[in-house]
Amino acid sequence: MEVVVDGSELAIDEVVAVASGRASAVPGVALDERMKPALDLVRERTAQSVVTYGVTTGLGALASTRIPPEQAAEMQIDLVRSHAAGVGTFLDVPTVRAMLLLRARTLAQGYSGVRPDVVRFLLTLLDRDLIPAVPSRGSVGASGDLAQFAHLALPVIGEGFFLEDGEAVPSRDALTDAGIEPLVLQPKEGLSLLNGTEGMLAMGCLAVHDARVLVDTADAACALSVEALLASDRPFDPRIHELRRHPGQVRSARIIRRLLLGSEINASHHDDFVHAVQDAYSLRCAPQVHGAVRDTVEHAAAVFSRELGAVVDNPIVFPDEGDVVSAGNFHGQPLAFALDFLAIALCELGSISERRTDRILDPDRSSGLPPFLATRPGINSGYMLAQYTAAALVAESRISAHPASIDSIPTSGLQEDHVSMGWGAGLKLRSVVDNTRHVLAVELVCAAAGVDHRAPLQPGQGTARVHSAVREVVAPLNDDRPVGADIQAVAATMERGRLATIVDDMEME
Q1: Distances (CA, A) of 279 to 215, 275, 286, 333, 366
Q2: Is 53 a catalytic residue?
Q3: Distance separating alpha carbons of residues 211 and 349, to the nearest angstrom
Q4: Could you tell me if 285 and 479 are in contact, meaning their C-beta atoms sit under 8 angstroms apart?
Q5: Per DSSP, what are the bridge partners of residue 168?
Q6: Three-state SS at 169
Q7: Domains of the chain, start order
Q8: pLDDT tens, residue order, the chain (509 aa)
Q9: Are 40 and 230 in contact (CB under 8 A)?
Q10: Contact 138, 85 (CB under 8 A)
Q11: Nearest Cα to 146, choosing from 59, 62, 208?
Q12: Which of 113, 170, 269, 456 has the most CB atoms lying inside 10 A of its own CB?
């Protein structure tokens, strides 16, 4: 797969493909033509010392400081150096790859006034898998993710570090080994390498991909829990959900019902109203909760998709009008809200999953399953502590679900007196995604064991596939063993999309 970077809008799937290394990114054939008008205007205004923010003036609270033309290029290098103030652990490779791609796309639009060489340099780093070492802390998500993009930009001028096996190595040495010459920045190029929302956007695109996998997996886990708990399939009747019309709810109900088709377990008690007149909310209301998560994910995807075609640099160059305007498209508020909303939704996906797990393990509420699914209860503890892990992760996610986007804190001498905190929202979301994945893994492990105890009755066609996918990586629990490995194994197969693929296949049949 090849993603062409010519300034046009990208798709979330394209970002994910490049971030994961499954696709390459190449410059468009008309890149020079598209970028030349804005570049010519910036050069003209610099030569004539026309007041232009970030080109012939300082930045932020220093915007009133004039910069003479002969120092305009020098200032750009100093901008990159001075803004590289990030701290903390380094970002993971997929996030940095996405940032390189998105920054190249922004500059390629032809509204920044930089050379095509800058775009090509960023794409060369991607092509050679030279990944800048970018610290994870230091952005308030307003003038964009300035500190992070400064660290991303340092290798462009032969400074900073690349990641090699998780360690930071000087970029100059790696560039020399690769036969790549650093760039000497021209007016506005340093600023354009720093400004914009692509950092939080990169995290958002990757999170949407992960969230779609998680919500499909949650439907599969719920269906397996319905089998394990001898719950009813009646709440998934499509007539119910068509009366409410939320698309996510309709789809989740359809998926769960389809996974249960042909279930001997379900048929054994289908008409037993004494057994299950009403199931617990975590089972009966799963489509309503999972579906709301689905709709939230797609709302966030719509926000991020718009941003994937947006101009977010500052100042913006309008070559046709001969104008350069300083404004605020770099402000991350739209993304910050969506990132926070995603964290809230995924937290609830984990919360309802943990409740189903607890029910499977509780002998008073599990319709006859052994306590904690232990082979010899009392001697064995079974999966008792697995629920502790799920509970701890849900509690942690609830803290992370507190919205960052309401915590504006002023910067730059009150010039930047309201900021989005979108970067922080993205970082929190990453932890919620990981927590939710492991909470769902706990449910799958326990639900699979519950289905084992319903033998010789067989689960449905779809739930049998889900059960088999779990058994591919986790053996049945006979005597006690360290269950953390079971949870990690299922989480890994989830991350690879194994359970979500089963759901997709069932929907297509």
Answers
A1: 21, 10, 11, 41, 11
A2: yes
A3: 10
A4: no
A5: 163
A6: strand
A7: 2-195 (1.10.275.10), 203-309+339-508 (1.20.200.10)
A8: 899 999 999 999 999 999 999 999 999 999 999 999 999 999 998 888 888 777 878 766 677 788 888 887 888 999 999 999 999 999 999 999 999 999 999 999 999 999 999 999 999 999 999 999 999 999 998 888 999 999 999 999 999 999 999 899 999 999 999 999 999 999 999 999 999 999 999 999 999 999 999 999 999 999 999 999 999 999 999 999 999 999 999 999 999 999 999 999 999 987 776 556 689 999 999 999 999 999 999 999 999 999 999 999 989 999 999 999 988 999 999 999 999 999 999 999 999 999 999 999 999 999 999 999 999 999 999 999 999 999 999 999 999 999 999 988 888 777 778 888 999 999 999 999 999 999 999 999 999 999 999 999 999 999 999 999 999 999 999 999 999 999 999 999 999 999 999 999 988 87
A9: no
A10: yes
A11: 59
A12: 113
- Active-site residue, from 53, 111, 383, 388: 53
0.70 cut: is pTM over it?
yes
The amino acid sitting at 403 is P
Question: Which residue type occupies 423?
Answer: W
> What secondary structure letter does DSSP report for 132?
B
Angstrom distance (rounded) from CA 78 to CA 338: 34
Q: Residue 194: what residue type?
A: L
Whole-angstrom distance, CA of residue 415 vs CA of residue 392: 41
| Closest-CA residue to 299 (of 219, 212, 386, 361) | 212
Give CA–CA dist 356/367, Å, rounded: 13
Q: Omega into 187 within 30° of 0, i.e. cis?
A: no
